[in-house]
Amino acid sequence: MERPRSQALFQEAQAHIPGGVSSPVRAFKAVGGTPPYLVRGEGAYVWDLDGNRYLDYVLSWGPLILGHAHPEVLSRVREVMEKGLTFGAPHPLEVELARAVKRAFPVDLVRFVSSGTEATMSALRLARGYTNRPYIVKFRGNYHGHADGLLVEAGSGALTLGVPSSAGVPEAYARLTLVLEYNDPEGLRALLKERGEEIAAIIFEPVVGNAGVLVPTEEFLKALHEAKDYGVLLIADEVMTGFRLAFGGATERFGLKPDLVTLGKVLGGGLPAAAYAGRREVMEKVAPLGPVYQAGTLSGNPLAMAAGLATLEILEGNPGHYARLEALGARLEAGLKAVLSRKGVPHAVNRVGSMLTVFFTEGPVVTFKDAQRTDTALFRRFFHGLLDRGVYWPPSNFEAAFLSVAHTEEDVDKTLEAVEKAL
Ligand code: PMP
């Protein structure tokens, strides 16, 4: 598959944009090669600048659960767009979308922002403002956007303070983030016992997508909820999982009881919308009701609200969509396992609903450490083998592949044939 126009443009882009991209993973650094410039999408398919067609398992990193260019979503956006793009004033669609969020999640008040990064950053500020405590806890391999306090990795030794994982993050700031292993309930319990009273919040991905897919153990989820006994707020980062694993996200699927939920991706239906939400007593601390400041010029903008609302209404009106995503996911998972077993390739396929990762290592893959054992050289071959056969898989082994309701059984089977040939 030739991509001369993408190649030339990507080369030129280096002169104008750092690395040629607006977000790092798009540069294909983990897999090498040139990313195709995608210029059109329809259903489960995308087309690049050179006219090549790909079956899409990235779906703009999650938002497009209905597939590309869904006619109803487009027409709702068009209708709103004709009346003006933004007003910076209250808009009726914000109220409607907030109502939809409340039907999905056990929350009283919803504040809209424009990105997942803003949602988690604001939720953490709120948690600190509400509890008057300095520390937050996050887990290795969980990604919550690029706010300073979240670009932090574990320092050496158990129960130590975080250190910056990006240049430009002050150490003093990173030290306020405590980093633990995901799916290590005992580590969490030990920290809570030692410093529970100083911790404002624990933020976590209820199913991890950003280390590749990791599934929470029951005991880990139990330990997370024990944090409440210490007055620690539990923040379920459902930016990826919300409206994807069920209408009520992982919270519904696993029966979680978070104090705050962060949402994004599907919430905006492909336009920039995200939110943080929780019970009244906590959310009332947000300005203008309370002392925790947070604002946004384009927050709750009508186009994003319209795309999100159209998407949520379609999901809510078609509960069969989730059963379908489950069935497609199961078919892809079973097929991948069969092909890889036949080829004698060590593998672990982690999946929850329509989120899936193939790790090229003996399973089970439960922790971030397990995930890091994956054979990234083999992944590169897998990735490029698929790309050359018209299947656009996430360009990193530490990302989740997504399905949409526009994908078909035939699409999945075609993917499996491509995997067979790629390896
Ligand atoms: N939280 C999670 C769980 C995410 O997956 C992401 C993005 N992949 C974010 C937060 C950040 O969202 P955004 O890219 O919209 O800032």
TrEMBL record:
Q: Does the keyword Transferase apply?
A: yes
- N6-(pyridoxal phosphate)lysine modifications at: K265
Q: What is its EC number?
A: 5.4.3.8
Gene Ontology molecular functions? glutamate-1-semialdehyde 2,1-aminomutase activity; pyridoxal phosphate binding; transaminase activity
> Its GO CC terms?
cytoplasm
Q: Which GO terms describe its biological process?
A: protoporphyrinogen IX biosynthetic process
Q: Which UniProt keywords apply?
A: Aminotransferase, Cytoplasm, Isomerase, Porphyrin biosynthesis, Pyridoxal phosphate, Transferase
Q: Which InterPro entries match?
A: 4pyrrol_synth_GluAld_NH2Trfase, Aminotrans_3, Aminotrans_3_PPA_site, PyrdxlP-dep_Trfase, PyrdxlP-dep_Trfase_major, PyrdxlP-dep_Trfase_small
Q: What class of enzyme is it?
A: isomerase
Catalytic activities: (S)-4-amino-5-oxopentanoate = 5-aminolevulinate
Q: What is its main location?
A: cytoplasm
Q: Quick one: which pathway? A: Porphyrin-containing compound metabolism; protoporphyrin-IX biosynthesis; 5-aminolevulinate from L-glutamyl-tRNA(Glu): step 2/2
Keyword Glycoprotein recorded: no
Which cofactors does this gene product need? pyridoxal 5'-phosphate
Location within or outside the cell: Cytoplasm
Q: Which family does it belong to?
A: Belongs to the class-III pyridoxal-phosphate-dependent aminotransferase family. HemL subfamily.
Query: Which HAMAP family does the record match to this protein?
Result: HemL_aminotrans_3
NCBIfam families per the record? hemL, PRK00062.1
Question: How does this polypeptide assemble, per the annotation?
Answer: Homodimer.
Recorded protein name is Glutamate-1-semialdehyde 2,1-aminomutase
Its source organism is Thermus filiformis
